[in-house]
Design a protein that fits this description.
Mean pLDDT: 94
Low-confidence stretches: 1-27
Strand order of the largest sheet: 1-2
Shape: globular
Radius of gyration: 28 Å
Helix content: 55-70%
């Protein structure tokens, strides 16, 4: 493909600055053949073909991606490799992403083997330090070798893990056994497992207390209503916890039934306030996710101080939807600092304070909160700006990069390897090395100017996702052209003008969907710039008159733009021009936003509240980002101040007197 050839050429220009890459050319070797070999080795690694990896490794010497080949060869047999072999690799490729990645794998192996002495020597050299299991093994090593008090550090890591593992779960079990970690901590982990439908999480947690508890938890998971019906008394602490787990499981399956069950006198009398509040939090969360009007009253039956932060988030969302501003403020006030200080909840706290009548201090605090986040960084930052009476404009550009700054980026061997890997088709590997080189190689990552230079390198290579993501990491300066590039501008503008679609909206969507990667493919089969599903592409092609469309054409740039914009226009028209609902439909299918908008009698909401209450986390995030993107692209395209609020509008039930459009949309 022409695009890939151009990309490869540009990536190689930057990579030529790398000493390892230069040596391959100095030897007069065929770079194309080496590229083909490394692709073959990538597949061999996936297949754990140790023989193929070992046989080809010598031919990779001096090639820019040699560290990858050597990493795959050793990683595939890490369980059998000697410590000296591993150390030789770490020394030879010192400072590379591959060295740090192999060390992470070795640390996990050392942790599983409880080799705390070797672990203790290697862990301080682990630069990424972003693996929770490695973190838990590090705590375990401290506990085993120095008898350090690690319970407080373990809890947030363990509770936050989605799945059960040996590291955090194993350390927790050891600490419970040694009476260094409370039984309550294990029960909290079990509750989180049950309410998130993670049975293995719950059983591992209770096994730390007593292996006999596992059978009971399995029974509760399968038949919570029967367990509750058979249980008359819950006087002992562990029985109350089992009852709580059963109520939580029932709430996950049927929140209405759980609400009836917990009101029974025996549970009111026997469960304590903390246990009841947690259960009410789960019931409220499930009702809120179903957009039930009963959710705010349900949350009010418990105490926010006794609920998990996930319950509080949904309590705030449900209260927003109901217009209960005092409850919004109370839920946010109960959140931990890290969550309460997120721009989402700073914004809504400010809005809640502004609702108080004739309280001048509240108005002033609201203003201060809005000023603390106002800007163009994201959705709520832009809304805060508008609450303060300002419009969204393109931020001032930083001083141009110097030749020296650009040269430093070109000379970065990790960035060169990443670009080359991406160019030849090893995208996931290249992306990981790029992210490591910009974010993790040095503590705190690259500084703002170095990030802009790295982003510039990616932009020039047309690796748009790394261009955007790298530029977005700057803290004190914004290069709007890097963060919001407009590739394929003539094609997008021509198509949108033809069908009457806002080009800023299309760019806002593409930026979120594919980051302008023409051959992007999702795990569910969506493809191309606008990430169109095969069945949707086929249906839309017929609708817009592409009679000769073939499925393989979906990654062709112009075809993808034609089909994607055609479908988006049909969706937008079916929702009477509502950009938030059309974005939700593009991501989650048009049927769901029809439900989420409510039926006759449901409230008409400002779209920011509606978007915050979208039940799917992916779609909720998607809608907010697409609309924020759209607003900034409009500022770039028109050169005029823009309003995010105007694009959001309101969302409510459709007019029942008018026929519903777009029911045939896939």
């Amino acid at each position: 493909m022409q695009f890939s050839a151009i990309l490869t050429s540009l990536a190689l220009c930057g990579a030529l600055m790398s000493p390892t890459f230069t040596s391959a050319y100095a030897q007069g070797r065929d770079i194309t053949r080496l590229d083909e070999t490394i692709l073959d080795l990538a597949q061999a690694y996936k297949n754990r073909d140790r023989k193929r990896l070992s046989a080809a490794l010598p031919s990779m010497k001096g090639y820019i991606l040699e560290p990858w080949a050597a990493y795959w060869e050793l990683s595939a047999r890490l369980d059998e490799a000697s410590k000296s072999e591993i150390q030789d690799y770490l020394n030879r490729y010192n400072g590379t992403y591959q060295e740090d990645r192999l060390r992470a794998e070795w640390l996990l192996q050392l942790g599983r083997n409880r080799d705390w002495d070797t672990f203790g020597r290697e862990y301080p050299l682990y630069r990424m330090n972003d693996d929770k299991s490695v973190r838990c093994y590090a705590l375990w090593a401290d506990y085993s070798t120095r008898n350090a008090d690690v319970a407080g550090a373990l809890e947030p890591v363990w509770w936050g893990q989605k799945e059960a593992d040996d590291a955090c779960g194993g350390l927790a079990a050891q600490l419970v056994k040694d009476k260094k970690l409370s039984a309550h901590s294990a029960w909290v982990r079990a509750r989180l497992g049950m309410e998130n439908d993670r049975l293995r999480v719950a059983t591992q947690a209770v096994a730390a207390l007593d292996s006999d508890y596992v059978k009971t938890v399995n029974t509760i998971y399968s038949t919570p209503a029967k367990y509750l019906n058979d249980k008359v008394t819950a006087l002992r602490p562990q029985t109350r916890e089992f009852v709580s787990l059963a109520l939580i499981r029932l709430a996950y399956i049927d929140p209405d039934s759980a609400a009836v069950e917990i009101e029974k006198m025996r549970w009111k009398a026997q469960l304590n306030q903390e246990e009841r509040s947690w259960v009410w939090g789960v019931i409220g969360k499930r009702l809120a996710q179903k957009l039930s009007d009963e959710a705010p009253a349900t949350f009010a039956k418990g105490q926010f101080a006794q609920m998990h932060e996930d319950h509080l988030v949904w309590a705030a969302r449900a209260a927003l939807r109901a217009g209960r501003w005092s409850q919004v403020a109370d839920a946010i006030a109960a959140m931990p600092d890290s969550l309460r200080n997120d721009s989402t909840w700073v914004y809504w706290r400010a809005r809640a304070l502004a609702q108080r009548n004739n309280v001048e201090t509240a108005k002033m605090e609201s203003q201060t909160l809005l000023e603390s986040i106002a800007g163009t960084k994201g959705f709520y930052e832009m809304l805060a700006l508008e609450e303060l009476g300002q419009k969204i404009v393109v931020p001032a550009k930083p001083a141009p990069l110097t030749l020296e700054e650009k040269d430093q980026a070109k000379k970065n061997p990790g960035l060169a390897r990443a670009l080359h890997a991406i160019a030849i088709g090893l995208r996931s590997d290249g992306v990981r090395e790029w992210n490591y080189s910009t974010n993790l190689h040095n503590r705190g990552g690259l500084d703002d100017r170095a990030l802009l230079a790295a982003a510039d390198l990616a932009c020039k290579a047309e690796v748009w996702d790394r261009c955007i993501n790298t530029s977005e990491r700057t803290k004190g300066m914004v290069d709007i052209d890097q963060r919001y590039p407009m590739p394929h501008k003539s094609a997008v503008l021509a198509r949108t003008q033809t069908i009457g679609l806002d080009p800023a909206y299309v760019y806002g969507l593409i930026r979120q969907e594919s980051r302008f990667i023409t051959d992007a493919k999702s795990g569910v089969g969506a493809a191309g710039l606008m990430q169109v599903m095969p069945a949707t592409a086929k249906w839309t092609a017929k609708k817009i008159g592409l009679s000769d469309f073939q499925s393989h054409q979906i990654t062709d740039r112009d075809t993808n733009i034609a089909i994607g914009t055609g479908y988006l226009k049909l969706v937008l028209d079916s929702f009477n021009g509502s950009m938030p609902m059309a974005a939700a439909a593009y991501n989650a299918g048009p049927g769901r936003p029809r439900i989420w908008r409510g039926q006759t009698g449901s409230p008409v909401l400002e779209a920011a509240i509606w978007a915050e209450n979208v039940p799917f986390s992916e779609t909720r995030d998607y809608v907010k980002k697409v609309l924020a993107n759209t607003t900034l692209y409009a500022a770039l395209i028109t050169g005029q101040p823009q309003s995010l609020k105007a694009r959001l509008g309101n969302v409510g039930p459709r007019d029942a007197t008018s026929p519903e459009a777009g029911l045939d949309l896939p």
